[in-house]
């Protein structure tokens, strides 16, 4: 019969004679030491951007703003891949000022899956907005609709420009970037801000 009057008594009955080397705490400690490196790599598997944004204050702001509910891709990783389809979830006014080269506008307030009907569900897609909040929400919708390889651009088009990546308007390359508003525009360190 198990000893109900003491916790160690219950452990003694479950785990053996109660010698020091057989205590559950030591086993659990060893287990967690062994499993932590594996858990750390799951973050990369789930698609969390592995490279932070360049500005530590901006990184802190993004940490508190985003829910990290979808896979994320760092600007450096997205810029180096040719086969990506970029979807812009900003307003049409922002999109007209400038966009990532080749991006398609899908909007946010009036987003509809009809706007992505020509994109294959297994196509690698990156959604972006100014900083990543609106694009995170659109990425959630795309994943719910069956898109298999869709990520949120961590830091948005602001970080894209901050890292020296090109933007274009309908005439070609431009330095202009819609800064959303003055409060959010402070995170845009390069380019010519347009409000």
UniProtKB/TrEMBL annotation:
It holds the Pfam family Rhodanese. Residues 80-169 form the Rhodanese domain. PROSITE patterns: RHODANESE_3 (PS50206). NCBIfam families: rhoda_near_glyco. This is Rhodanese-like domain protein. It comes from Robiginitalea biformata (strain ATCC BAA-864 / DSM 15991 / KCTC 12146 / HTCC2501).
